[in-house]
Design goal:
Length: 268
């Protein structure tokens, strides 16, 4: 479907769901429109994506759907980092990240391990793009500690899907008509969630190793080749037969595997 074909359909659908106060679907369609705009790699489309993300944060912030706000703020921060490595872009990314962190104080946002991982990754990338290894090192350690704590979290999914909780007030029009599948899901207890797709757990941890390797690469020769060790572990994770080690213990030595995982290539 072309951009010209998509625009009227998207606008018409959004007007209908806004008119009938289907807030959960407003979130879903605005995230979808932002995602489609970002795939076009055009400046004007990037601006459109940013406008949809800001609309999401305004609506979700006013309704207490702070996990939704965190997601939108993190995506905005990633857009700024992707656009340029200028000081201005990094500062804009850090501003969006600060807004995300303030919303993450909400218990509902803290329940989602993917959001915690995203926040640490973006924060670490800000320091890497500023070429500030001294600032990046404690951020790397904080990222590793968080990933270690959440390694066995039940909210990880092999397919990369993750659920963003939505308040009962925002989901009022869905109660009694919800589905346990799809983008907006309602369970038997009438808890509503917006289901998005990012990375499966093993890829998230591989990314953690890759970023860790980038942080300490400047001291690789004098630090026992830790950067190479991080990168080799990331490679092992991505190759399909791998083990998830506790990242934090790599600061001193390579640990034995604590969690065994096998990627099922037949599912891809």
């Amino acid at each position: 479907m072309s951009k010209r074909q998509l625009a009227p359909i998207n606008q018409s659908t959004r007007l209908k769901i806004t008119r009938y106060q289907h807030v959960a679907w407003v979130y879903a369609f605005r995230f979808l429109r932002a995602s489609l705009s970002l795939q076009m790699s055009l400046h004007q489309e990037t601006l459109i994506a940013m406008s949809h993300l800001k609309a999401i944060t305004t609506l979700s912030g006013g309704r207490g759907d702070l996990a939704v706000s965190v997601t939108a703020w993190i995506i905005e921060a990633l857009i700024h980092l992707h656009q340029s490595n200028s000081v201005e872009s990094i500062e804009q990314a850090q501003h969006a990240l600060a807004a995300a962190r303030s919303s993450q104080l909400n218990p509902a946002a803290q329940e989602v391990p993917q959001l915690a991982a995203m926040t640490h990754f973006v924060d670490l990338c800000c320091s890497l793009q500023k070429n500030d290894p001294l600032q990046a090192l404690p951020k790397m350690q904080a990222m590793q500690a968080t990933l270690d704590q959440r390694i066995s979290d039940k909210q990880w999914n092999d397919d990369g899907l993750y659920s963003i909780p939505i308040s009962r007030e925002s989901a009022m029009t869905l109660q009694g008509n919800g589905s346990p599948v799809g983008v907006v899901r309602v369970d038997s207890d009438q808890n509503t969630a917006l289901v998005l797709n990012w990375l499966p757990r093993e890829d998230i941890y591989a990314l953690g190793y890759l970023l860790s390797g980038a942080v300490v690469i400047h001291r690789n020769a004098m630090d026992g080749q830790k950067s190479e060790q991080y990168l080799k572990e990331a490679q092992r994770l991505l190759e399909g037969m791998f083990s998830l080690a506790v990242l934090g213990t790599w600061v001193d030595e390579i640990p034995k595997a604590t969690v065994k995982v096998r990627r099922d290539h037949s599912a891809h």
